[in-house]
Amino acid sequence: MASSQLFIIFAILAISAPSILATNYVVGDGKGWTINFDYQAWARGKMFYVGDNLVFNYPKGVHNVFKVNGTGFQQCSAPLDSVPLTSGHDVISLATSGRKWYICGVAQHCAMGGQKLLITVFPSSFAPSPSPTWESSNPSWSAPAPSPTWGKEAKGKPSSLAPAPSPTWGYTG
Ligand SMILES: *[C@@H]1O[C@H](CO)[C@@H](O)[C@H](O)[C@H]1NC(C)=O
Description:
Elements: H1 2-21, E1 24-26, H2 39-43, E2 48-49, E3 53-57, E4 66-68, H3 70-75, E5 89-93, E6 98-103, E7 116-122
Parallel strand pairs: 1-3, 2-7
Antiparallel strand pairs: 3-5, 4-6, 6-7
């Protein structure tokens, strides 16, 4: 009796804990993803962790979202073979640590409108495990767990930036 109730409680925790721990960052907050907005100022002071999500909100058809590398970010150019996100409510799971670059590929929105975002993602200290082990009488969320691969970033090349044990701060290019 009691143990089956406990099991249900743990099952609920196991399902809901990762979504509690993950943070959704709405890029640009109320302004959304648009031109003439300082996305570096928006990102400043925020701590992005593996497992968090970026949400790009914009009127569908007006903008889009390309994930690019550092060169593409500086030059406002996306690889010819890459496909942008265009839904107007694009959710990107931050699957790996390191720097991430996003630009709008419409017209001159990136080059002239500054519609570009650079963030640094830190390894999660709350890595949700796909199969948490509940045997431990004192489960610790801080235990390093193999980080599951989330979402659409999985098909991209692994970041050329290895997760740094001591993350480098700032945007030194
Ligand atoms: C960045 O992406 C471009 C394609 O847009 C590619 O040609 C270049 O080699 C990439 N640079 C790095 C450092 O991966």
